[in-house]
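[Q] Does anyone have a clean C-alpha cell version of this?
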Amino acid sequence: MSAHGDHDMGHTVAGWTGTALATAGTAVLGAGLAAGSPWGLGVGGVVVALSALTTWLLHLAGWGKPSGPRPRGRRSWRTRDTTVRYGHPGCVGCRLAGRRQEAAPAVAPHVPPVAAGAPVTSGTSVPAGSPVTAEAPALQTSG
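[A] Here you go.
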C-alpha cells in the first residue's frame, strides 16, 4: 500500500468484506428496482443489512482497526488487532458490544499529612514532618 504514503486508509478484512457485501447488496437492490421485483428489493436489503452486521462482527473478532492511524508496521490489511477485546476508545461498535476501554488508573493527588487532633480546613497548611493520622480522601472515578 505504498501509494497511500503516510495515510492509514483503514484497509482491513472487516472493511473489505463489508464493502464487498454492501456492493453486492446494492447491486441486487438496483436490479430488483429495475425489474420491479419486491423479492429483489427484499433480498438486496437483507444483504446490505448483513454487510453491516458482518463488518461489526469481524471488527469485534479483531479483523478491523481502532479509530485513527495505526503504527506503520501494523497497517497491512491482514494484521489482526489484538487490543479489541478491551474495546477501542470512542468506538461505537465496541460500546454496542459492551466493550468499554478501561480508564487508566487514577493517581491520587498529593495530600499533605495531617497532625493528630488538628482540625483541617481548606487552605490550612500542615507543618512538614507531622505524623500521618488521616488518610487521603478516596478518589472518585466516573464509570
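[Q] Thanks! Anything notable?
[A] Helices lie at 13-35, 38-63, 92-96.
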